[in-house]
Backbone:
């Protein structure tokens, strides 16, 4: 039984802690949060203990789900104790800080897995497997549409690092995952169309990015902070031999037909519902990494590369030029 | 150029006359109707002449689209002149009258094609071809759903011969066409749920039928005189190796997504739109029968057999017993 | 914490026992089976104990998932101890035996819930709720298509009670559930098309049924023991104001497009996958019935009525007559 | 009866000539081609005459479907005779030549309609109408996917003006049509992935473009010269209140289900099939423009603006910079 402690008792910590508690090969060592009451409340619902950060770092492994600014520090403290770490994305909003943190990770020789959970979504994972099996030959174009149901609170926006680093980073990782080749050119365009307050906070709410790999593969990403019909998450890969796509997931198959036409459900509301399975599978992969001795994927370098793409996208959106992402 | 005269200037006569006028291998010889003004009006819009019935029977071929009670007489008069005939279904509401008429047809040696136009619908024709190609192996079960958008006027109901002979006859022909084996048992259940006036007129508006062939193939038909979402026309064939189905046809592919879900168009409104292509192809088949010397299909026997199945269904719905259709 | 014992360690017992073990408001008291090793093995995987039948009947409630011939006896023994019972369908293959058993249940005043799990399937439950909300007005026609992926072993067929009592009984219950009115006429047709060995065992593998209620609502059911594309489970309700349907569930949304067309996944393979959620929700309903004091639904009378419809269907398929189901 | 002459007896001339011949309000005055035999052959199949260019310019109106380099000259010759003109896109590959031609058109005061036929496709026209009706509120993002089934001959590629001016120009016009606001920024990325011979001819076969309007609306276009599954033509508009999309059109609704899943037809093969209705409706609009006195739309300025966007896209794909399209 692998004892895993969770740092952070917020929305995403709650998901991970629940999954650890339910996993047959793991035990929830406890939950630590800088707000002790939050840790205590969550721990209670799961029959676990609230811990100090220090105590949490005595478990067999640690899962970091605390606010972004704490991630790199916690990773380094875990590295110092030679603990395997799962860290929610992003490691840090500063690429330099991430590089420094990854150096500590390498030096300590610990495993670090980064929370790009969508790689584990059963629909996208099946798409990836079928791409790998050659069903459409070489991939040539990739289309990723990813829209939140509604914008986050402005307080969140202000510390999020902006749409590219906070939201699109998932799609940038997905593009790397599916293109099987690094994007070398990034071009972005962005607007504030949903909520002027987001613009006032210095961010955008509507953005598109084009990626180009060295061999010429092209990827288009479309992001919006609002979609009236639910959490829009779609991927389409176009290749020499055909097209593979993964569509939205609806809560039921029920359809109504009347004079207005045929009507299905709207899309599952948000990531808690849409990606519930991906979080469980992701945790299983983390556990297998530790108990099975395999490499962690996505790892710290994946986290850094996605951040560098997001940084390039942000720069491109501001300069109107195609930008090459920085070196790792 | 084959000269074809049309008998009957009503709704269905208008369709056929227009198709003849537009066909590259045919010429519209003219239109005859017992209401001369109706013939004149339709003829004018098509640049053709209004004819007497007698004159019409001097064309190269005749297409009968007049009221049902006139069909058998007109067929016999055409047979007397050795004219090829296309006749709208049904030949007559009385099986005995149909048998007598078909005897005249056989004696005259003319070609008689009966207007089961749905056999020529591109969707159903493709389904039939793929069944024939063995895509699902031997057919085992057939499901036919056929619902009108709204009930006909009571005056029409009163002379229609009833739902089984007027409406379901198309589905019974389709069942024979697709099952590739004669149904030997017919069981029906029927109700009046849509409009009590239909019941008062001695008819039903909601009916289902089960057919069974000698080898045990089963077919279910579902009819209603009302469907709020349009003219519902669907077929599903289930076989040893899989399922083949042909769905409804929508006017456009446009889809709206919003908080209420995803919404497509309703189904094409009625047979004029849904089966426009089938009438054109059916006419081509009739012309090819004459000019190419092939057998007419569906022919008079097909018309009789569908009527006998409808008669059996009506009897079953009244007696609660499975009925064997009469011999041809 | 409600302690529930499971009788029967077979395929369906395993599902229920696992769900009890995972339920927050219940505890798995243990598992009893006439094959003690089977109970022990299943109990071990769930961290529970193997019990004798007698010990099992000392729990707070009992869930009967043993072979059908034992159901009625176990219900009566539980009734003697005033235990709430959940029993897999059917209570017994003999309607008279069911009637006797239900008399004991009534006399003891215990709650008895019968395992028509499909009522709890999220898709069908949503359909039912939306029917109830009046989205299509009064229901007029119901179409239920239910096909197994492949026929059961002949040994199973021989003791199953036949397709109508074993397989279609689920659809007959669903018809009652959705029609909101008792069927008063049953007409069936059946064949052996899939496997001659099934016919040799006295059963059929392909069957259709028509139900008619007192007010004239019509229901068509289509059953086959084989569907190459997976476990085909569909429902369509046609009403005065429109149509509501619940389609098949696919494992992923992934679609491939190539020269052969657009291809989705086949349907979920069988009931373990398709109805996993329904078993969990069903268990929750049973627990709520006990802890919340609500009536059990579906209850013993529902079980009896579905059996009487199956008996009527069997008789109709043999006599070619429409049959009125026996009185409760 | 409006007499319309057709210049150009190639693939697209054939479509237009056939539609004129079939139109109730027009007569095909004849067909002119620099290859007289081509004109004669096409004219014969339509019961029309082969004409000299000069004779053609004596009709009531002229439809130019000749090779691109002749378009501007013919327009100017027609303008000199005050003839209404329909011209296939593009007017010319040089924006300056187009400007000069449009000056002649303005001076002559003739009507000039340009052949962006997709505006008249029933699916896209319905999408446009519903956008106009406010179904999704203000449009924020537009996604246009447009892929040919297979690359054109290299000889065609060499004189086509390149993918942006030859193929994407349709999508750029569609973007203008649907965005209801001029794009002011164009960013493109392009590759040669389908056929190296296309690259050797100085062109690309795979390209994406991002457009941004003054108010910040974003549009993504995806083009490929190859799609194994047919002629891929899709549009998606995302707005404040929802999403409207128009999907691909399949030849039939037939679907096969077997162990491999559910399979529909591939998409209609190419523009002759996909856009047959749009050419007919487009011709009707041209005729109505002349007979009804309404403005021609899309007109010469629409043709020029789409070309300027294509030029900007080409420049962007070569410089890696966002480009503002030139002034009209």
Residues:
């Amino acid at each position: 039984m692998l004892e895993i402690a969770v740092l952070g008792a917020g929305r995403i910590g709650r998901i991970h802690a629940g999954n650890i508690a339910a996993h047959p090969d793991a035990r929830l060592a406890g939950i630590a949060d800088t707000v002790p009451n939050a840790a205590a409340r969550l721990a209670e619902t799961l029959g676990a203990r609230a811990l100090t950060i220090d105590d949490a770092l005595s478990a067999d492994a640690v899962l970091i789900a605390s606010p972004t600014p704490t991630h790199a520090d916690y990773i380094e403290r875990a590295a110092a104790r030679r603990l395997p770490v799962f860290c929610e994305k992003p490691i840090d909003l500063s690429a330099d800080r991430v590089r420094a943190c990854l150096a500590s990770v390498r030096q300590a020789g610990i495993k670090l897995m980064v929370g790009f959970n969508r790689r584990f979504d059963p629909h996208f994972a099946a798409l990836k497997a079928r791409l790998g099996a050659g069903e459409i030959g070489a991939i040539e174009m990739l289309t990723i549409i990813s829209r939140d149901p509604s914008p986050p609170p402005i307080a969140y926006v202000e510390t999020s690092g902006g749409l590219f680093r906070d939201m699109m980073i998932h799609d940038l990782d997905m593009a790397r995952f599916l293109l099987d080749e690094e994007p070398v050119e990034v071009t972005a365009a962005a607007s504030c169309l949903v909520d002027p307050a987001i613009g006032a906070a210095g961010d955008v709410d509507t953005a598109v990015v084009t990626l180009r790999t060295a061999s010429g593969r092209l990827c288009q990403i479309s992001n919006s902070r609002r979609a009236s019909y639910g959490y829009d998450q779609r991927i389409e890969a176009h290749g020499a031999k055909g097209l593979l796509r993964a569509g939205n997931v609806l809560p039921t198959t029920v359809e109504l037909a009347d004079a207005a036409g045929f009507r299905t459900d709207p899309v599952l509301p948000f990531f808690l519902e849409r990606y519930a399975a991906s979080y469980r599978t992701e945790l299983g992969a983390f556990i297998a990494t530790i108990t099975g001795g395999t490499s962690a994927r996505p790892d710290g370098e994946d986290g850094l590369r996605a951040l560098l793409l997001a940084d390039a996208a942000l720069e491109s959106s501001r300069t109107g030029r195609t930008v090459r992402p920085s070196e790792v």
About this structure: The mean pLDDT of chain A is 97. Chain A touches chain B through 14 residues (CB under 8 Å). Chain A has twelve helices and 14 strands. The radius of gyration of chain A is 20 Å.
